[in-house]
Amino acid sequence: MRSETTASGALPGDGLIRVGAVLFIIGAIATLVTVAPLFLGTDPFPTIVYLVAMLMGVGFLVAAAGVLRSIAAQRRQARETAPSA
């Protein structure tokens, strides 16, 4: 069904979901890196690492925006193809 929605098979919002997933993974890795000094007893990392860790939340929001955009496009398409009553 998904390939029937558009010629290329990609829905609006798919790109946002992919970008959000990448940002989330980068942020998750940075979060693990920032927590490591607590267990290893080393000096904390610079502030930039903590800022990169915030990409996890940003990635989640970007992916959620992509999901909402995809839902809106599917609903719009369903309204256009539904028979008028």
TrEMBL record:
<feature type="transmembrane region" description="Helical">
    <location>
        <begin position="21"/>
        <end position="42"/>
    </location>
</feature>
<keyword id="KW-0812">Transmembrane</keyword>
<feature type="transmembrane region" description="Helical">
    <location>
        <begin position="48"/>
        <end position="68"/>
    </location>
</feature>
<keyword id="KW-0472">Membrane</keyword>
<protein>
    <recommendedName>
        <fullName>Integral membrane protein</fullName>
    </recommendedName>
</protein>
<keyword id="KW-1133">Transmembrane helix</keyword>
